[in-house]
Amino acid sequence: MTASSVRRVSIVLFDGFELLDVFGPLELLSIEPERIEVELVGPRAGSVASSQGAEVVAPIAYAEAGAPDIVLVPGGAGTRRLVHDAAFLDWLRSWSLDAALVTSVCTGSAVLAAAGLLEGRRATSNKLAFAWASGHGGDVDWAPSARWVEDGDRWTSSGVAAGMDMTAALMDRILGDGAGTRAAAVAELELHLDADRDPFARSSGLIS
User: Fold this and answer.
1) SS3 7
2) Number of folded domains in the chain?
3) If 0-12 CB within 10 Å is exposed, 13-18 middle and 19+ buried, where does residue 87 land?
4) Which of 9, 65, 110, 134 is deepest in the core (most CB within 10 A)?
5) Is 50 helix (H, G, I), strand (E, B) or coil?
6) Is the Cβ–Cβ distance between 109 and 124 less than 8 Å?
7) Would you call 43 helix, strand, or coil by DSSP?
8) Domain for residue 42, yes or no?
9) Residue 158 and residue 147 in contact, taking contact as beta carbons nearer than 8 Å
10) What pLDDT does 150 receive?
11) Residue 196 domain flag
């Protein structure tokens, strides 16, 4: 495999990101190191504090990040601030515009919507935060019942652990040969294989 055939996933860290939103997908993606490389991009090069308090080192600052191939924006308490951060949203919009795929986990979709990256698209988000998340974006078709949503080059998932289901499906799509399904088996993860099956939409009061 040539270097040019390796897919690069750039995960956007920010103060108050959700740990599993990042490390669930990263765990699966790292099982294919010869075909996928992962980079962590942060507001600065150095440690970034998660919602849980653990700090993660981002080797690359936003301002230094190269043109992305696949973008992943996690959720977390910090998204409540980011959706009002005009400088960050301008950077994210400009940086992501030509990416092959733009994806999110949990309330990361609210950030994508606030940046104008989900206009005219179908999307979902964390069900307990759905009312808040779906208030962002001008023309987003928010799906209240979906484990994850694929709309062209935009993929969004429901809350936290749903990001692993989306990531496995994404790996199956971009790599083929059941790569995501195999990665889940290595991680001993029982996947939700149906993107439309959402066991939490009803319990969250989003559907009757």
Assistant:
1) strand
2) 1
3) exposed
4) 110
5) strand
6) yes
7) coil
8) yes
9) yes
10) 98
11) no
Q: Extract the tokens encoding 65.
A: 């990040």
Over residues 37-59, the pLDDT tens digits come to 999 999 999 999 999 999 999 99
Structure tokens at 18: 């959700």
Contact 35, 191 (CB under 8 A): no
pTM assigned to the model: 0.96
What was the pLDDT predicted at 208?
Answer: 82
Instruction: Judge whether 204 lies within some domain.
Output: no
Residue 201 lies in a domain: no
Asked if 164 contacts 155 with a C-beta cutoff of 8 angstroms, the reply is no
Residues in contact with 43: Cβ distance below 8 Å, sequence separation at least 6, in sequence order: 13, 14, 15, 58, 61, 62, 88
pLDDT of residue 27: 97
- Both tokens of 174, joined, read 């971009």
* Euclidean distance between CA atoms 51 and 33, whole angstroms: 28
One-letter amino acid identity for 1?
M
**pLDDT less than 50: residues of the chain:** 1-3
Domain that holds residue 166: 3-186
